[in-house]
Amino acid sequence: MRNRAVSLILWVAIGLFAIAPVMGQQEGEGMSVATFAGGCFWCLEPPFHQTEGVVDVIAGYMGGTVENPSYEQVSTGKSGHLEVAQVTFDPEVVSFNRLLEIFWRNIDPTDSYGQFADRGPQYKTAIFWHDEEQRQAALASKEKLAASGKFTNPIVTDIREARVFYPAEEYHQDYYRKNSLHYNAYKVGSGRAGFIQKTWGKEGE
């Protein structure tokens, strides 16, 4: 969390907070949308971006009551929003079930109050379903993971109905590409990279 705070101070210093947030992702013809909360949204973008059939991934906020929340508001943990990645994908190329597998392999689904070094309700994990088919698939995948014996503690990831999605500020978008050195150090330092490697091996990446 300290590394993220330092990054924000640096962004202020170079005046990049003036950049307007990106527009909300719209579903194109034949495209579908999935929304996942997995702690720091920086770390959810890469595994989805690298998946064939994924058209776009946008970091943002969902689940709270504050309209047009800022990162600072969400970071207090009082806005009700979670950090999320909204994924636009071609269901003819990649299934929602495959996206669920990628999601599970990049989080700790047994952590009820954050993810790795990031603590607080804004970092909780959740699958936000956009239709009944996604809801049923999410519930089934959660039950399958629980029954697999992969984890000894309960799977606590929420399955929630999707609400209004607010794109995060521009400096958060594609952070792993814009600031790869800091992103990689953060992923390792937070404990996420080691957890994925230990739990899933290279498949998790």
Explain how this protein is built.
The chain has helices at 2-13, 45-49, 71-75, 96-104, 132-148, 175-178, 180-189, 192-200, and strands spanning 32-38, 54-62, 82-89, 114-115, 118-119, 125-129, 158-161, 166-167. It is an alpha+beta fold. The chain has a single domain (30-204), classed as Peptide Methionine Sulfoxide Reductase, Chain A (2-Layer Sandwich). The strands form 2 sheets. Strands 7-6-1-3-2-8 form a 6-stranded mixed beta sheet. The protein has a two-stranded antiparallel ribbon with strand order 4-5. β4 (114-115) and β5 (118-119) form a beta hairpin. α4 crosses α5 (132-148). The protein is globular and about 35 Å long. The two termini are 22 Å apart.
How do you describe this structure in short?
The protein is an alpha+beta fold and 205 residues long. It is built from eight helices and eight strands. It has one domain: Peptide methionine sulphoxide reductase MsrA (Peptide Methionine Sulfoxide Reductase, Chain A).
Give the arrangement of secondary structure elements.
Elements lengths: L1 H12 L18 E7 L6 H5 L4 E9 L8 H5 L6 E8 L6 H9 L9 E2 L2 E2 L5 E5 L2 H17 L9 E4 L4 E2 L7 H4 L1 H10 L2 H9 L5
Parallel strand pairs: 6-7
Antiparallel strand pairs: 1-3, 1-6, 2-3, 2-8, 4-5
